[in-house]
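Bug report

Summary: structure tokens for Sulfur carrier protein FdhD differ between web form and batch submission.
Environment: batch mode, default settings.
Steps: 1) Submit the sequence below via batch. 2) Compare with the web form result.

Sequence submitted:
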Amino acid sequence: MSRVTARRRMRRISPAGQIQRPDTLAVEEPLEIRLDGRSLTVTMRTPGNDIDLAHGFLFTESVIGAADDVVAARYCAGTDDEGRNTYNVLDVALRTPAARVTTRNFLTTGACGLCGKTALDEVRQRSRFPLAAPEPLVDTEVLAAMPGTLRGRQSVFEATGGLHAAGLFTADGVALAVREDIGRHNAVDKVIGWALRENRLPAADLVLMVSGRASFELAQKAVQAGIPVLAAVSAPSSLAVDLAVDAGLTLIGFLRGDTMNIYSHPERIVAIPASRAHPA
């Protein structure tokens, strides 16, 4: 398998002076996803969990509807300039050949030129799993612990400081799957692909936790996977909030310590008792 970290020389400048030394960086390489031998798309990603990534991407873009739709996913042989094996082309064989699919059919790559209403309508039409139920109920103390748990499972981030992470948690805070990637959307596709292959979709009892901001793209993927709660350590975008309100998704931003902003459907969140809460 390709390496997930690489060493590069750099010059460090600090008040103590200058020093040249190697630095550990997250690897970024292209992954070409093919369908039945035909090129479908290329994404820049950190190698690792590529089969989960492909499953999650194909599912959230409505190319497949279940893990059984995929007969096989195989790397195509290749070598780099130094003769080492590369694993940057993944051919996915489908049980039933897909109708002609191009990147223009993908909501996440076709957002340019779409207005907000059109984007929301697209998600509504593609969604398989309504988020109507008020469950799961998640305690704010459980949510507050999730970023630390997510960070603790980021082994490559610990070495490089350069990766996003996504995790699927139970309502009582157990991390079922954590994935890292240079692209936040890839990290989410990897955990959704894991859930698809483990027969955990729709993930109506789980929370999706992400290490960065909550964009429309990530909210769309959560809705497509039937995940009712999306929490992020940073800010949501305006269109992500609009989608969350429209689709029934509980969207939480700025989840840091025991503070958080709930932007939509707060009925799933159980606040700590008033006697233990900080004064306004």
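Above is the batch result. After comparison, the two runs are identical; trailing whitespace caused the diff. The radius of gyration is 20 Å. The domain at 138-270 is CATH 3.40.140.10 (Cytidine Deaminase; domain 2).
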